[in-house]
Fold this sequence. Notes:
Distance between the termini: 32 Å
Largest sheet: 7 strands, antiparallel
Shape: globular
Number of helices: 6
Mean pLDDT: 88
Amino acid sequence: xxxxxxxxxxxxxxxxxxxxxxxxxxxxxxxxxxxxxxxxxxxxxxxxxxxxxxxxxxxxxxxxxxxxxxxxxxxxxxxxxxxxxxxxxxxxxxxxxxxxxxxxxxxxxxxxxxxxxxxxxxxxxxxxxxxxxxxxxxxxxxxxxxxxxxxxxxxxxxxxxxxxxxxxxxxxxxxxxxxxxxxxxxxxxxxxxxxxxxxxxxxxxxxxx
Length: 209
């Protein structure tokens, strides 16, 4: 599996760690991942506060770890590094540039476009954001229809409650109506979570004991 590791400083890590409550949050996170990669500057060793793993092979995933928080989602774009310069490309072939990622963030954050109940109003919002609304719409459509694959590992001593809320557990899905926990026997590191989800390594087993 191809894994590209990124050490993160305090600002980079804080920009990626977010609360996931709605589909918008996932897409915004993906755009922040793209921006982090496209403008990446490796921090000095004493400034490292977190870590990101970008996995692009049979499994397309991104993993983020910061201050005991660790989570992963599917990754809807490929990442290429040519002579130290990164590029991100959606599976449709659209170049996810810094400009396009900013337009997607604007469409989700600063206008009513994504929640506009009128199709013409939605089109007007998109037209006002980009000078290439067709590409923006195509990228947005692709991202909306991408499986998010969200999973989070928690080490949570403050809320530990026996088997109802294990000290170490994995949360599957992010919405309150769908999420559930699976207890884990020990605290995981980001490499262990990556291996757990890697379809090219041996499977892990769930025990009911």
